[in-house]
Amino acid sequence: MEELRNNIDKQKLVVLGAGESGVGAAILAQRKGYDVFVSDYGAIPLAFKARLNEYKIPYEEDGHNELVILGSQIVIKSPGIPQTAPIVKKVKEAEIDILSEIEFASQYTDAQLICITGSNGKSTTATLTWFILRQAGLNVGLAGNIGKSFAEQVAHEKHDYYVLEISSFMLDDIKQMKIDIAVLLNITPDHLDRYDYKMENYAKSKFKIIQNQDQGGVFIFNQDDEEIMKRLDSYTTPAQKYPFTQQGELVEGAYVDMDHNIVIKVLNQDTFDMSINELALQGKHNVYNNMASGIVAKVLELRNESIRESMGEYQNIAHRLEHVSQIGGVNFINDSKATNVNSVWYALESMPGDVVLIMGGVDKGNDYHILKDLVRTKVRAIVCIGEDNQRIHEAFSDDTEIMVNTANMQDAVSMAYHLAKKGDTVLLSPACASFDLFKNYEDRGDQFKSAVRDL
């Protein structure tokens, strides 16, 4: 990799996929002297075309020119493109180097890399960690699976730290990238279609976050997660390990004590403590998120007062348990980013009262069994949105009295408001992908917020 960095000489570099990461990688590659070409099998959104045109980067859409692609020396593959895609197979057969955007960008920055992964909570934890570091005065960027691409930030900005939200798809493509502080929040079934429907394959991808760490690295992990603990001994790292738990005290790491305080103990640092009732983000799952972020902050030797202040002031990201409004005593929460069953479990668990749940969309082979107890005890009604909600009806017909189908977000919100009582929460937490009725989960969440405002 170092040889690539120092011996570019106008090497031909092709970027597959013209989304946020692909366009960012193309911009960085151009700045570093590569002869860049972007190829997308589908249509390129107008906003990304405009950025490519601005930098005069040539591109194609609606198909791949194999002659051009296979004539390159390096290919950067967007994380959404599976290894089994025909063009990726041909690139491998041609023995052309394939890099991910984050690995490529990591070659061109000396910043400390704080990478956060997990099936649930990684967006919140990454953003919270970035917020704590920024509030403490550190020069820190936020990238990865969130916000502006890592590569484009490296091209234009110079941060001392980067907090990267890392998906399993991104981890699949890591080869030599070394992560300074690795955070593994949890491993629950998600995207199993990409991993031959084998949990072991998915877990292996998650553990790649520690594969290149050395003794100077830090590995932070959830000791209460069954899948992590089952495999911890199989994926070793020389890095310093800091677990976090809500099930007892630890000598080092983070835990919740008998008085409901988060306690964080990190080597050679004074102990941090804070009441969980003072956290801006409430709910059991958010205690885990705060513990993980807090360990990162303590490892970086931030002051306790600064960490405590940030944890008490932080406001959640859009589309993840985002409070939209209160109308007629009914709260409206946008959790459109909850595209799997476990995310919905976390959302329901954190709700203080009865819930009217809006859910549905493109089912990814969901197992709804883990939601049944929470639906039975907390959900007043389920409002289905999507083209096919048969499996949701089959899963919960015995657990809640009211289940209705709606054809669009406007109708779903109107029906949910009609069914809710004062003090209830209308929660959009779909458990499904969005691309039957919406462009993406952001579009779904935005339509939810717009419909609430129209009530």
What keywords describe this structure?
455 residues, alpha/beta, UDP-N-acetylmuramoyl-L-alanine:D-glutamate ligase, 20 strands, disordered N terminus, peptidoglycan synthesis
Question: Can you summarize this structure?
Answer:
With 455 residues, the protein is α/β, with parallel strands linked by helices. Helices cover 35% and strands 21% of the residues.
Question: How would you describe what is shown here?
Answer:
With 455 residues, the protein is of the alpha/beta class. The protein contains 18 helices and 20 strands. The longest helix has 16 residues, at 284-299. It is globular and about 65 Å long. It starts with a helix and ends with a helix.
Topology:
Blueprint: H1 2-6, E1 12-16, H2 20-31, E2 35-39, H3 46-54, E3 59-60, H4 66-69, E4 74-77, H5 86-93, E5 97-100, H6 101-106, E6 112-117, H7 122-135, E7 140-144, H8 150-156, E8 161-165, H9 168-172, E9 181-184, H10 199-207, E10 218-222, H11 226-231, E11 240-245, E12 253-256, E13 261-265, E14 272-275, H12 284-299, H13 304-313, E15 322-327, E16 330-334, H14 341-350, E17 355-359, H15 372-378, E18 379-385, H16 390-396, E19 402-406, H17 409-419, E20 425-428, H18 441-453
Parallel strand pairs: 1-2, 1-4, 2-3, 4-5, 6-8, 6-9, 7-8, 9-10, 10-11, 11-12, 16-20, 17-18, 17-20, 18-19
Antiparallel strand pairs: 12-13, 13-14, 15-16
Helix pairs in contact: 2-8, 7-12, 7-13, 17-18
